[in-house]
Amino acid sequence: MRITNENFMPAELPYNFAFLETATETLRAIAHPHRLLIVEMLYHSKSMNVTEIYERLGIEQAVASHHLRILKDRGVVMVRRDGKNSNYALTHDAFFQILEVLNRVI
Q1: C-alpha–C-alpha distance, residues 67 and 7, integer Å
Q2: What SS3 class is residue 90?
Q3: What is this structure's pTM?
Q4: Where are the domains of the chain?
Q5: Section 71-77 average pLDDT
Q6: pLDDT digits 0-9 by tens, 50-63
Q7: Is 85 helix (H, G, I), strand (E, B) or coil?
Q8: What sign for the dihedral angle of Cα 56, 61, 63, 64?
């Protein structure tokens, strides 16, 4: 019998191991200063294009695009095409609330 962490999860805990793995990957996706700033900016602005994001952060366009791709792949942001522009928005305001919670406890 193969022993995994799943075998040792107490039955009374509300979250299963698969959910916790997914949650870990999502937290890992936002766990970068630039990505946290992107989450904050998108929360306040509701929608921004990559030019607005990289200029406001003072980083290269390729770096901003890299961070946005990570956030998009994990479902933190969504992208909408508007002609030549790609506008980014948070999929859920709750991602900003994670940042607010950390601000209160750290």
Answers
A1: 35
A2: strand
A3: 0.85
A4: 33-105
A5: 98
A6: 999 999 999 999 99
A7: strand
A8: positive
